[in-house]
Design brief:
The protein is α/β, with parallel strands linked by helices and 271 residues long. The protein has one domain: Rossmann fold (3-Layer(aba) Sandwich), CATH 3.40.50.620. Helix content is 29%, strand content 25%. The protein contains 8 helices and 12 strands. The strands form 3 sheets. Strands 3, 4, 5, 6, 7 and 8 form a 6-stranded mixed β-sheet that branches. A 4-stranded antiparallel β-sheet has the order 10-9-12-11, with helices on one face. β11 and β12 form a beta hairpin. The chain is globular. The two termini are 31 Å apart.
């Protein structure tokens, strides 16, 4: 799916940011000199912790761009990526990204990967049970928020907000309501490199599967399609971008029709 803008109100978090200290006067210097604590300890009271965030990671361009946007904010720290994997196929649910590529993405982003194994088919109550467990782990690890790459589908946002309401975790949507035509072009100009892994043939020709997410693709999309594929027209696998320390070397494999969708398979090239 996708992602959005504006983090909303910012709350407390873990690594630290220092604010300017007030200029000392004679009284404060005297007080400090009489204090049983060293001056450096007094200084730490001016530190404010950063908000620790768990990022929902689909392996696609929107979650990758959400990571890039969030990392521009000095008040937040992304601590891990959260991904659900279809255990029957060992692939990211819906996107179809193979697990080795998923793990390579996390390594390139220099972040731990939290994998939620899901059965196939997966009833919603089982999915929600696993998500509840992941949220409990996040709270136990002093994480304050979960960020998502959703772009404008209100029903999905509302669902996520309801699911997190009782957990104490704040839902964040850093790409929300950014016009998707501008967003898609900003991603490409910003260095995102991705390939289409899954296409809905009811909205796009199956031949789009396997193509690069680039300006040529945007030009070829029918006018009915959202530029970012937010309505499920397509899903992607990111292999390079400013959120990665290095690009992934992937190659396209077989293209198949499965469960009513057109999939392109990708693998990491042997080093």
């Amino acid at each position: 799916m996708s992602s959005r803008q504006r983090l909303g109100p910012k709350g407390p978090a873990v690594a630290s940011k220092i604010l300017p200290l007030p200029q000392p006067n004679a009284e404060s210097i005297q007080t400090a000199s009489c204090s049983p604590f060293p001056l450096t300890q007094a200084v730490t009271s001016y530190y404010y912790p950063m908000k620790r965030i768990l990022l929902s990671w689909s392996s696609g361009k929107d979650s990758a761009w959400a990571l890039h946007v969030l990392r521009q904010d000095p008040n937040v720290e992304i601590v891990a990526l959260l991904t659900s994997v279809n255990s029957a196929f060992d692939r990211v649910a819906m996107h179809g990204t193979r697990r080795p590529i998923l793990e390579a993405q996390a390594a390139a982003a220099n972040l731990p990967l939290w994998i939620i194994p899901l059965p196939w088919p997966c009833p919603n109550e089982i999915y929600e049970h696993h998500m509840t467990e992941a949220c409990a782990r996040a709270v136990a690890e002093d994480i304050q928020a979960v960020a998502f790459g959703d772009l404008f589908l209100a029903d999905i946002r509302n669902y996520r907000e309801r699911q997190l309401a009782s957990t104490g975790l704040e839902p964040l949507f850093p790409l929300w309501d950014i016009p998707t035509d501008a967003l898609a072009r900003d991603m490409i100009a910003g260095g995102i490199r991705a390939k289409l892994t899954c296409v809905d043939p009811r909205q796009l020709a199956p031949e789009f599967a396997g193509r690069d997410f680039d300006a040529s693709l945007l030009a070829d999309l029918p006018s009915s399609a959202d530029p970012c594929g937010e309505n499920g027209e397509y899903h992607t696998c990111v292999y390079a971008g400013p959120m990665f320390s290095s690009a992934l070397d992937i190659e396209v494999g077989q293209k198949v029709m499965r469960d009513g969708f057109s999939y392109a398979d990708f693998t990491l090239k042997a080093s």
